[in-house]
Specification:
By secondary structure, the chain is an alpha/beta fold. The chain has 2 domains: 80 residues, GMP Synthetase, Chain A, domain 3 (2-Layer Sandwich); 264 residues, 3-Layer(aba) Sandwich (Rossmann fold), CATH 3.40.50.300. It is 32% helix and 21% strand. The protein is built from 10 helices and 13 strands. Strands 8-9-5-10-4-11-12-13 form an 8-stranded mixed sheet, sandwiched between helices. It has a 3-stranded mixed sheet with strand order 1-2-3. The chain has a two-stranded antiparallel ribbon with strand order 6-7. The N and C termini lie far apart (77 Å).
Length: 369
């Protein structure tokens, strides 16, 4: 059997887009980039927005239509690319002109508490009186809706200056957006790299962030297309790297630092945060148990000549705060709350001294009593 474009288009014409009732060919949702190589077919489907709830069902219906009306031997799985219409938005270099500082929060591996640090740092900065925005850019594992207890929130869009802009959710003085607001929390987000990057760009460029002193971006663990998208889309003030003290995490943290500081990326490292630095049980607040090793991130910071912004202990209240949607930084009386405030002060010191073209100096430390 010989495949040709009309066969594929005729099959796709049997698929209707639920939002309009038109078939996807008539609705001009099938791009003209179709490629046929023997029995292999690839093409793109164009949707208006990444938040379109019909994306997955339409892609699946398109695959089924081709296998049903053309041939079951057609190889198509994974070859349907999803694209989104570009709305009129500012040029990349002019994005977020009302945001003073853009800070990425990264980790070399998952499970080191990067999102917990991001949430608490945002809250701590807001408590200090700064205007703060937080973007959950961990597309495949969004956790901010849970950490801020806004899982049921559904951001709406408003027309502002002729553009439809997403209005961030506000909680604890922080403006928040996450892909978690737009997907089923019980299902995995099975998006290809281009689709994830486009969704992220929309959350940045097509949202009404307004005036912000600090725009924090909770990046996915490791290194990926998302990191490159952020670097190419925004002028980052710098990046904070989060790690636990153990050797496995430190090895990945070292790679993360190298990624941002290499000549092609060249993003400043604001500093390193050692999370889960030690375990302190609530009933024995004076005790420290170095479960994951002692001072590993501190030593890495010295080795790589970057500031150590703080050491956060492993305390049950941090986990409880994350699960309950009440970040521990809200509690000024707790040791961990004070630790995050100290980290926030160190970040502010770095940014202000960098903006004044001076090297960062004073580092605030919080010690157990």
């Amino acid at each position: 059997m010989t495949l040709y474009p009309k066969l594929i288009l005729d099959a796709l014409a049997t698929v209707r887009y639920p939002g309009s009732g038109k078939n996807i060919v008539e609705a001009e949702m099938v791009d003209d980039d179709m490629r046929i190589d023997g029995m292999k077919v690839s093409f793109s489907l164009i949707f208006d927005k990444p938040t379109d709830s019909f994306v997955k069902s339409v892609v699946k219906a398109a695959e089924t239509a081709i296998l049903t009306y053309v041939s079951k031997e057609v190889e198509i799985a994974g070859n349907i690319n999803v694209r989104f219409k570009q709305t009129a938005r500012p040029e990349v270099g002019k994005l977020l002109p009302q945001v003073k500082n853009v800070i990425g929060i990264s980790s070399g591996k998952g499970g080191v508490g990067k999102s917990t640090v991001s949430a608490n740092l945002a809250v701590a900065l807001a408590k200090m009186g700064y205007k703060v925005g937080l973007l959950d850019a961990d597309i495949f594992g969004p956790s901010m809706p849970k950490m801020f207890r806004v899982e049921d929130a559904r951001p709406c869009a408003e027309e502002i200056d002729g553009r439809d802009l997403i209005i961030p959710i506000e909680k604890y003085g922080v403006k928040l957006l996450s892909i978690g607001f737009f997907v089923n929390p019980d299902q995995a987000t099975l998006w290809r790299g281009g689709m994830a990057s486009n969704a992220l760009k929309q959350l940045i460029a097509d949202a009404d962030w307004g005036d912000l002193d600090y725009f924090l971006i909770d990046l996915p663990p490791g290194t990926s297309d998302i990191h490159l998208t952020i670097v190419q889309t925004l002028a980052l003030t710098g990046v904070i790297v989060v790690s636990t003290p153990q050797e496995v995490a430190l090895a990945d943290a070292r790679k993360g630092i190298n990624m941002f500081t290499n000549d092609k990326v060249n993003v400043p490292i604001i500093g390193l945060i050692e999370n889960m630095a030690w375990f302190t049980p609530a009933e024995l607040p004076e005790n420290k148990y170095y479960i994951f090793g002692k001072d590993g991130a501190k030593q890495l910071a010295e080795e790589m000549n970057v500031p150590l912004l703080g050491q956060i202990p492993l305390v049950q209240s941090i986990r409880e705060g994350g699960d309950d949607g009440s970040p521990v930084a809200l509690n000024d009386n707790s040791l961990t709350g004070q630790a995050f405030v100290a980290v926030a002060h160190n970040v502010v010191n770095y940014v202000e001294e960098r903006n004044n073209e001076q090297p960062p100096t004073q580092i605030v430390e919080i010690k157990a009593h």
